Amino acid sequence: MGNAIWRGSPGCKTRKEEPLVEFTVSTIEPENCPCDLLVLGVPEGEIFSGPVATIDQALGGILQKVVGEERFTGKARTTLFFHTHDRIPPRRVLLVGLGPSSRITTDHLRQAAAIGVNTARGRHLRHIGLPLLDRFPAKEEAQALVEGTILGGYRFRKYKRSDEEGMVEGVELITTPDRREEVNEALRRAAIFASATCFARDLVNEPPNELTPSRLAEVAREVATQKGLRCTIYGPEEMRQMGMGAILAVAQGSSQPPRFIVLEYAPPQAKRTVAIVGKGVTFDSGGLDIKSTEGMETMKMDMAGAAAVIAAMSALPDLALPVRVLGIAPAVENLPSGTATKPGDIVRAMDGHTIEINNTDAEGRMILADALAYAVQQGADEIIDLATLTGSCIIALGPICAGVMGNDQGLLDRLMQAASKAGEKVWQLPLFEEYLEAMKSEIADLRNSGGRYAGAQKGAIFLREFVGGKPWAHLDIAGPAFVEHEEAKGPYWPKGSGTGFGVRTLLEYLTAISEEPQEQDSGKHR
Ligand code: BES
Ligand code: MN
Ligand code: ZN
Questions:
Q1: Phi, psi dihedrals of residue 97, rounded to the nearest 5°
Q2: For position 162, what pLDDT does the model report?
Q3: Quick one: which atom of ligand 1 is closest to the CA of 391?
Q4: Mutation test of ligand 1: which of 355, 385, 390 has the most ligand atoms closer than 8 Å to its C-beta?
Q5: d(CA 216, CA 309)
Q6: Per-residue b/e over 4-32, b at no fewer than 16 CB within 10 Å?
Q7: Above 50 in pLDDT, residue 4?
Q8: How many Cβ atoms are within 10 Å of 492's Cβ, its own excluded?
């Protein structure tokens, strides 16, 4: 009966172990669920539909009165909390507004569950009852509720001595008998998705003195050993032999050696290979083109792409998808020093392109140039990269949304569909041919910075030169990877924390292409 779930990273010693949250699926009536807190999502203006009406009856109409007195209307993310004084088995009820009925998405359920778990933690309540709404397919609702619970309850406490909050120990998902199987299955999947997301958050939240390129590589190796993935780690000498001059140029300013991390998930029945590539700059000072104090403060998060890739890879054996996936994470520190790369330096990438480094702070595209070329060399049929690549993308789309760009509209459409299912915001930006001019150098094939306008797109155009015409999508996650500003905060996005952005989109994407095998289209890619 009990589906025990471990929240947090899969034993990679990146965090203190946290207790289990046990999810159970039950078919009890919500008003009869013996729990400390019953969490009910309610549409705006239609509060007294469904279980809320029954509960109001059981309480002799008190609920109607409280809702009126508190002027609770069900606006999105607003709440109403009250005690039931032993009239019904749930000891407290939390109504969470979902906003106008016609605009409710499964992400509102994810948020409502997160608000529920945070309310419970703040009040030291241990057992939550969480009924499904029956607005969306049971699978989707259960997945959103479970993800919201795990992601909303996430804290990075490894470096704190004490904890003021309580822990939720049990969550009862409440559904009808006919939907029970579906809910059970969704629960398992959601727990895998959410745990992988928490793992990526842990990696992003680690300080840069702890999470160096070599430490990141060790973590990747631990994951591989535990999960049964193939793992190859290259050091600087091997990178030199492979001709990865672009990564080495970024790495040369630091005393920490770079690592080129490759994880492989290769089920026997796989017919095609997807490469997922993540930018792993464990600290970005800008190099000699050094950043400002404010600009540098959060730059430990510049490895969020690599974190998403490693975390997504860690989930694949549990999901048992029939597709081969290469997870590639180039890891470096970008620092200024007597050995650092200089503006004006020209280096050669693995695929032969020469690059004039006109800005040492455009280091992400340098390390990705070699990583993308490596993915092509390894026989990837399709490539998706994730990178905290440009401040420009944050200016364009704000801190809660990623930019998506690429050379194959079919792939981009499938990826955007997956992101929407995952509740992650992405928006496509156009790659106009004119932008390529800005990325050309007078004396080398390319330069790494092309001026301030359309910075996100120019970064992508630069990357496109290294994918050898393979279908490729690029997610610029500079905004949503880390919650730096108040305005980006959300019920399951705590301020000052990594978000694990991209993990669930990748897993949804890989699940979708496994269910409906896509023929490689014959469209043109450049
Ligand atoms: N890591 C930064 C981008 C970034 C900025 C991520 C803010 C998250 C928050 C990247 O390496 C960078 O410095 N990009 C430059 C590129 C420019 C020099 C072409 C930028 O966006 O200014
Ligand atoms: Mn930079
Ligand atoms: Zn960077």
A1: -65, 140
A2: 80
A3: 21
A4: 390
A5: 12
A6: ebbbbbbebebbeebeebbbebbeebbbe
A7: no
A8: 26
- Nearest partner of 172 among 39, 8, 20, judged by Cα: 39
Question: Does ligand 1 have an atom closer than 6 angstroms to the CB of 390?
Answer: yes
Q: Name the residues annotated as catalytic.
A: 291, 365
Asked if residues 357 and 345 have their Cβ atoms less than 8 Å apart, the reply is yes
Q: How far apart (Å, rounded) are the C-alpha atoms in residues 7 and 5? A: 6
Contact 55/31 with Cβ under 8 angstroms? Answer: yes
Q: Is the CB of 484 under 6 A from ligand 1?
A: no
Q: Does ligand 1 lie within 6 Å of residue 392's CB atom? A: yes
Mean per-residue pLDDT for 360-374? 99
Neighbours of 87 (CB within 10 A): 13
CB distance 285 to ligand 1 below 6 Å: no
* CA 435 – CA 457 distance, rounded (Å): 8
> What is the C-alpha separation between 9 and 321, in angstroms, rounded?
21
- Residues measured by CB to lie within 5 Å of ligand 3, the ion: 281, 284, 302, 364
Spatial distance between the Cα atoms of 367 and 135, rounded to a whole number of angstroms: 45
What is residue 246's predicted lDDT score, i.e. its pLDDT? 99
Q: Which amino acid is at 130?
A: L
**Cα(49)–Cα(32) distance, rounded to whole angstroms?**
17
Residues with CB under 5 A from ligand 2 (ion): 284, 361, 363
Q: Taking Cα atoms as reference points, which of 355, 384, 385, 371 lies closest to residue 450?
A: 355
Asked if residue 388 has its Cβ within 6 Å of ligand 1, the reply is: yes
